[in-house]
Amino acid sequence: MTRHVVAKARDIAPGSSQIVEVGGREIGVFNVAGDYYALANRCPHAGADLCKGFITGLALSDGPNKYRLERKGEFLRCPFHGWEFEIRTGQSWCDPKSMRVRQFKVDVAPGETLVKGPYVAESFPVKVEEEYIVIDI
Amino acid sequence: MKLPLEGAIDCDVHLSVPNVATLLPYMSDYWSDQLVTRYIDRAGFNLTSYPPRSPLTVRDDWRAAPGRPTGLAALQADVLDPGRLSGAICHTMHGAMALFNEDMGAEFCKAINAWVAKEWLDREPRLRASILVHAQNPALAVEEIERCAADKRFVAVLLPVMGDSPLGRRIYWPIYEACERHGLSLAVHAGSTYRNPPTAAGWPSYQSEDYMLQSSAFENLIVGFLAEGVFQKFPGLKLVCMESGFTWMPTFLWRTSKTWRGVRTEVPWLDRVPAEIIREHVRLTLQPVDAPRDPKILNKIFEQIACDDMIVYSSDYPHGHFDGDNGLPEGLSPELLRKIAIDNPRAAFPRLATVDAPDTKETV
Known about the structure:
CATH class of chain B: Alpha Beta
CATH architecture of chain A: 3-layer Sandwich
Oligomer: heterodimer
Number of domains of chain B: 1
Mean pLDDT of chain A: 92
Largest sheet of chain A: 7 strands, mixed
Low-confidence stretches of chain A: none
Mean pLDDT of chain B: 94
Number of helices of chain A: 1
Strand content of chain B: 5-15%
Number of helices of chain B: 13
Shape of chain A: elongated
CATH topology of chain A: Rieske Iron-sulfur Protein
Distance between the termini of chain A: 5 Å
Number of domains of chain A: 1
CATH class of chain A: Mainly Beta
Number of strands of chain B: 8
CATH topology of chain B: TIM Barrel
CATH architecture of chain B: Alpha-Beta Barrel
Radius of gyration of chain B: 20 Å
CATH superfamily of chain B: Metal-dependent hydrolases
Order of helices and strands of chain B: EHHHEHEHEHEHHHEHHEHEH
Helix content of chain B: 25-40%
Strand order of the largest sheet of chain A: 2-3-4-8-10-1-9
Number of strands of chain A: 10
Low-confidence stretches of chain B: none
Radius of gyration of chain A: 16 Å
């Protein structure tokens, strides 16, 4: 496993995401209410750039013509076919048992600890006073 | 060739009203007078779906002929007795369904239901029937259901699969509420009132197209029921597709279920994969069987449907789909045949509980 410093934490605000490249592979980093999650930018259904889809909630209902949206910001909707994935788990909402997008371990680390290494910072310098998103692959 | 087991229930037997004059005694003075003085009693009121001389409309050996029994005697001799049936459910698809005058339509339905009760149900204890309603005005349809529901020999409400609007729409829900409340199944039969073209792309040139494409109307029906949330609103409702064919069902299950994953947020009450909902709520009559005769192919279709509860026995009498007395296809397991012929009809039409079960636990 190698630790990859992929982004400044403050660049990915709650409710937003950033697609980063790690070792030639695209990964979406999401900030869900202050917690960070990393998912492969590849839909397990048909290979679309999943992480470019809408970050949204879950449409639920208590019966015909009753609508509500819950868990806002916790789901990702694939831009190809609209399949929904839970950002926290990578699981498909409709088929949680057999459909899951690959997840990566993600941490927030202070620059202070990172400057000592070992890590790979591919695109920008690490400063002691910043916090960084670190992905282990 | 006889049915291989005793006590089957034939879920789709057709009655045909010989002429409008037959119904006049069951109508109010006003409507009887209207029909006679406007010469409406001379009209045939046959739906164009079944041209009288077409071989599909009446099987050759079931046609009226010198020496042949007629009416109830024919039904007994052709279907009930040789089939050793416990029961048969009669449906009267009648031109009145297509009337634009909904009061006249409702009066026809009332007369036809009364005629069915008196001329058929009263005279043959094995017979059951569906309640004919005029769907254009759901409130009048519910009135007719309420009028007939006390008679437990009515086991379903009958609608044509193509009417004014898709049947899943909320305007029709009072009919389904009444069905659920009275334990009546909803029997939706092939056929159209021709308010809309029988193909989704417009009017076809030939009756053959209309007939071949009936199955697509049932796909429309089920998709509409799913999307509108009819099964969520009325969890006790049993939808039985009559004369729909069923060999299209596997691909339909796959398509609705796969598509649901991408579009479910528009209809969030559809909270389970459609295949599960269809397997729980939708039943289809056996005849016409469209599959090739090779039992391996037919068994594969049943395997793909993955629900042995779905198909209910029907002969579709007097339409000609098979020879002899046995409408059950060859090569199915005895367990599946028994489900299709006996258990599934009784589950699909809960009011069949009053039909005597066969005495013997005969195996096929």
